[in-house]
Specification:
Its main location: cytoplasm. One of its GO terms (molecular function) is isomerase activity. It is found in: Cytoplasm. This protein has 522 residues and is an alpha/beta fold. It folds into three domains: 6-95 and 288-485, Glucose-6-phosphate isomerase like protein, domain 1 (Rossmann fold), CATH 3.40.50; 117-278, Glucose-6-phosphate isomerase like protein, domain 1 (Rossmann fold), CATH 3.40.50; 486-521. The chain has helices at residues 10-23, 28-34, 38-41, 60-72, 75-83, 120-142, 156-167, 186-195, 213-228, 234-237, 245-251, 275-302, 309-323, 341-353, 385-390, 412-429, 456-477, 488-503, 511-521, and strands at 43-46, 49-52, 148-152, 177-181, 201-206, 238-242, 255-258, 328-333, 371-374, 397-402, 446-451. A six-stranded mixed β-sheet has the order 1-2-11-10-8-9, sandwiched between helices. Helix 11 links the parallel strand 6 and strand 7 (255-258). The longest helix has 28 residues, at 275-302. Bound molecules: 6-O-phosphono-beta-D-fructofuranose. Residues 154-157, 207-209, 212, 215, 265-266, 351, 484, 487 line the site of 6-O-phosphono-beta-D-fructofuranose.
């Protein structure tokens, strides 16, 4: 597979020229006035998601050059290599196949379209594992004696299931409460343990590696609490979701659901890591979640680049980061249940594309991952939108709105939709008729993602869309989006500092760490 780094393509230089000539000065208001087709040209239907891209700082000529950039850098071959099961996670020599977790079983009547033949056996394993997990989820759902499910995991082993269980709150079975413990800060676990009883609690220890110190510490404490409270049946009250079944057994957990090293932590909600979601919304709901994501996989895999939503979003990310030099992207879901969606996307983008060297280890001469941040609307409007409208930095905003609400309270939804439309409008239009403090420059870009309703299918599609757009920008940047060596150093240093906190030895420490350590021990 041939990948060419974006800055080594002819299109890169042409984009630079186009940016200087007209891109930098593009005015959205003028662009709309000049082209009555702008909304149509810059909107894109994808499975379960409609996207209005027209309020982005891009014209048709730039979009054509960006698509050229994608072709010249080998995006299609790279994408196809992922779907062929090549070891595109080169620094760990691993395949990248989270998409296989949502691929339907091969129908013997219809020779598979979406899966390479050599993967049939792996796909079979995926479905056997999925069936076992969904069967277990249904048993837990039917077990009225279990009232609390406590997921112990961090990073991808927490954010995915937590985000999805909260987002699909309307679909969650009554009679069960879901808790998520991630932080090694004992306050978090202690607060949950105060609310639950051993005989009615199921602890899910979620860890791909089963070595993560936070998760292991919390799991040990939960088990010690369970036994101290008189709990006996570990097999009934603890289950492990992990690729390291041996370590889970050694820990004393016999109920395990496995997955594979080709599922990255931040891409693992579709695997056994999704068990809390499967318990919450049931086997059928979880299948719909997978199906929505699969529809998006097929769109990404087969739609022409110019009508491919993940591609169009990923190209805008590159345009903004490397030509406009915007440093962040704000995500604003106008649905209160999408509370953890910004945090989920933060890990997805920043752990994947927060890299300073290319796949060969060469330092990059251009910027990669933007900072991703945000809060649900309308809350953000009363906190930081001031800066988005009138601050010195331009921050592209990505709105998510949902057409049909799941409640029947009169007035609320219209008001919510009016607000999200008005914010996008205000960012673009600004307000020129007042000077000084009341002046809004406008021309601030935004993307508008629209779902018909927030349900398991559309959430699956939305999350898969985000995974693939991160793939697209990472691919053009020439980096490996699937490793995360950057989290290792802190882990190693924490081990050293932990020992020093007990014995007080500050020899060889920098003066700041030593000073703080002495204060903490005093
Ligand atoms: O520290 C980073 C990380 O490896 C993430 O990529 C991952 O999602 C998280 O830690 C948790 O890892 P594990 O599931 O192995 O406990």
């Amino acid at each position: 597979m041939n990948r060419t780094r974006c800055d080594h393509t002819p299109a890169w230089g042409q984009l630079q020229t186009a940016f200087e000539a007209s891109g930098r000065a593009l005015d959205l208001r003028t662009a709309f006035a000049a082209d009555p087709r702008r909304f149509e040209v810059f909107s894109q239907n994808a499975p379960h998601v409609f996207a209005d891209l027209s309020k982005n700082l891009v014209d048709e000529a730039t979009q054509a050059l960006l698509l050229e950039l994608a072709r010249q850098s080998g995006l299609e071959a790279h994408r196809d290599a992922m779907f062929a099961g090549d070891r595109i996670n080169s620094t760990e020599a691993r395949q990248v196949m989270h998409w296989l977790l949502r691929t339907p079983p091969i129908d013997p009547a219809m020779p598979s379209q979406s899966v390479h033949r050599h993967m049939a056996e792996t796909l079979h394993e995926v479905h056997t594992t999925l069936e076992a997990m969904l069967d277990y989820a249904e048993r837990v759902r039917a077990d009225a004696a279990i009232t609390d499910v406590v997921n112990i995991g961090i990073g991808g082993s927490d954010l995915g299931p937590q985000m999805a269980v909260l987002a699909l709150d309307e679909y969650v079975t009554p009679g069960k409460r879901f808790h998520f413990v991630s932080n090694v800060d004992g306050h978090e676990l202690a607060a949950v343990l105060k609310k639950v009883k051993p005989e009615s609690t199921l602890f899910l220890v979620a860890s791909k590696t089963f070595t993560t110190i936070e998760t292991m510490t919390n799991a040990h404490s939960a088990k010690a609490w369970f036994e101290a409270q008189g709990g006996t049946d570990i097999a009934r009250h603890f289950a492990a979701l992990t690729t390291n079944v041996v370590a889970a057994h050694a820990f004393g957990i016999s109920t395990t659901f496995g997955f594979w090293d080709w599922v990255g932590g931040r891409y693992s909600v579709w695997s056994a890591i999704g068990l809390p979601l499967a318990i919450a919304i049931g086997a059928q709901g979880f299948r719909e979640f997978l199906a929505g994501a699969h529809d998006m996989d097929e769109h990404f895999r087969t739609a022409p680049l110019e009508q491919n939503l993940p591609v169009r979003l990923g190209l805008l990310d590159v345009w903004y980061r490397n030509f406009h030099h915007f440093t962040s992207r704000s995500v604003a879901p106008y649905h209160s249940a999408l509370k953890r969606y910004p945090a989920y996307l933060q890990q997805l983008e920043m752990e994947s594309n927060g890299k300073r060297v290319d796949a060969e280890g060469q330092a990059l001469p251009y910027a990669t991952s933007p900072v991703v941040w945000g809060e649900p609307g309308t809350n953000g409007q009363h906190a930081y939108f001031q800066m988005l409208h009138q601050g010195t930095d331009v921050v592209p905003v990505e709105f998510v709105a949902v057409k049909k609400p799941k409640h029947s309270l009169p007035g609320h939804h219209t008001l919510l939709l009016a607000n999200v439309l008005a914010q996008a409008q205000a960012l673009m239009l600004g307000k020129a008729d007042a000077g000084g403090h009341k002046h809004f420059t406008g021309n601030r870009p935004s993307t508008f993602l629209l779902l018909d309703e927030l349900n398991p299918t559309s959430l699956g599609a939305l999350i898969a869309l985000q995974e693939h757009r991160v793939f697209v920008s990472g691919s053009l940047w020439g980096i490996n989006s699937f490793d995360q060596w950057g989290v290792e150093l802190g882990k190693v240093l924490a081990k050293d500092v932990e020992a020093r906190l007990s014995d007080g030895n500050v020899a060889g420490l920098d003066a700041s760490t030593a000073g703080l350590l002495v204060r903490l021990r005093a």
